[in-house]
Amino acid sequence: MQTLRRKDILGLEEMSAEEITLILETARSMREIIQRKIKKVPTLRGRTVLNLFYEPSTRTKASFELAQKYMSADSVSVAGTSSSLVKGETLKDTVRNVEVMGIECVIMRHPVSGSANYLARNVEASVINAGDGMHEHPTQGLLDMFTILDKKGRLEELKVVIVGDIRHSRVARSNMWGLQKMGAEVVVSGPPTLMPPDLEAFGVKYCPDLEEAVEEADVVMALRLQKERQEGGLFPTLREYAEIYGLTSRSVVKAKDDLLIMHPGPINRGVEISSELADSPRSVVLEQVTGGVAVRMALLYLLMGGVKEE
Amino acid sequence: MPGTLPPSARQDMEGGEKMALTHKATVMDEKGIMQALRRIAHEIIEHNKKIDDVVLVGIRSRGVPLAKRLQEYLNEIEGSAIPLGILDITLYRDDLTERQEQPEVHITDVPFELDKKHVILVDDVLYTGRTIRAAMDALIDLGRPATIQLAVLTDRGHRELPIRADYVGKNVPTSRSERVEVKLKEIDGSDQVDILEQTKD
């Protein structure tokens, strides 16, 4: 496959293995640009991108903005707390207004699941979902796969364990869809209260015992634990969570020597992952960040680089 | 629309076409290609007194095996290894907003410094000059070479930019409706340069 024949990137559930492969291969070429002294190519000169973040974000927003700069696109960033976003204007009106100013691509993060799909249906610009509620975070899923592929050389037949709050995690959803499409086996672990009720629909295995789950695993991915979930009564204390489901040298004792340790960030050290493991040579947390810029450059190129079919 | 070219004029920017093509003439065979490249290797040495500062950069895709062969011939003559890099110019093209088919991006791999080097850019066919323009922009983003020189296996004319080659394997006069097809063993299984004529279906 040469071209991505779609207007938007909304989630990995709807994407084919061929499309994911094209994105990951293009990202590999983009990474070379990031390693240059002059990190800029003229490809998207004169094209305009809007970054619309209705939720706080540091790394995803910085990563998208850097990708835009490296590709020479012009960009406008609007944060959720500013101006019309709090004046009660609807999402559709906001974007239609900026669209007539010549925006060709909108990157959006929004707390409501499905908001990216809604936006995509209502505007002509390409939409890249930068995380919508508990639905999907496709660029995170893609950068995780990019990192695994880079380190392991393949995705097929790898065993990937995702541990933590699967239920509320869009990162987990995108990774479950994407990794399985690429032929990996996905096992989830974490307290039963943090598992989605429809877990079977994802086709993944649930293994409540973390130590057992990581046995024979090639990759383990810890998810960020949102502390407000504790108030909802889904787990008793952070300490107890860390004790049972935190990644520590003890929990990975049965794992392979070349186990990759991943985390989408930001890390709660000592909760989802111990400092010792987060800073160990097996951890690829920082590689995930560089991969993120490359993947986002690839998506901008694939969505905006050619002529859209009329 | 400014800059819009007839499909035939895009040949050196894109690989394949979907029009009916018939063989008109073979202009170079295996031996011809070898002799042309050997001669170019000698010309490069004559032209660049300090061969230590010379580097080769092949433009994807067929410029890469050609640059590799030049590297071998230069090594045979000079006995020193000339560095070789690979350039993908996709992200520097001037027609990305006009094409229907989006070109695939491949890796650029220039694993050495270009500053103060004499860069020999290598490609198979010199035509409109737009590929070379893009390649020069890409090179300059990687460093500041002392000179950029251009070596091509064939020059078929019809330039649209003020660009010329320093080393030419063979000048192949063509009309715009014709196509020059370079086949190389490394990619296509055999060495040959043909002129194809476009005929309407």
Structure description:
Chain A is of the alpha/beta class. Chain A has two domains: 17-136 and 289-304, Rossmann fold (3-Layer(aba) Sandwich), CATH 3.40.50; 138-287, Aspartate/ornithine carbamoyltransferase (Rossmann fold, 3-Layer(aba) Sandwich), CATH 3.40.50. Chain A has helices at residues 17-34, 59-70, 83-86, 91-99, 115-122, 138-152, 170-181, 210-213, 228-231, 238-245, 275-278, 285-304, and strands at residues 48-53, 74-79, 105-110, 126-132, 159-163, 185-189, 205-206, 219-222, 260-262. In chain A, the strands form two sheets. Chain A has a five-stranded parallel beta sheet, with helices on one face. In chain A, strands 2-1-3-4 form a four-stranded parallel beta sheet, sandwiched between helices. Chain A is globular. Chain A starts with 16 loop residues before the first helix and ends in a 6-residue tail after the last helix. With 201 residues, chain B is α/β, with parallel strands linked by helices. Chain B has a domain at 31-92 and 104-176: Rossmann fold. In chain B, the strands form two sheets. Chain B has a five-stranded parallel beta sheet. In chain B, strands 1-8-7 form a three-stranded antiparallel beta sheet. In chain B, strand 4, helix 3 and strand 5 form a beta-alpha-beta unit. In chain B, helix 1 (30-47) crosses helix 2 (63-78). The radius of gyration of chain B is 17 Å and the shape is globular. The interface between A and B is medium-sized, with 25 and 22 residues.
Short description:
Chain A has 310 residues and is of the alpha/beta class. Chain A has helices at residues 17-34, 59-70, 83-86, 91-99, 115-122, 138-152, 170-181, 210-213, 228-231, 238-245, 275-278, 285-304, and strands at 48-53, 74-79, 105-110, 126-132, 159-163, 185-189, 205-206, 219-222, 260-262.
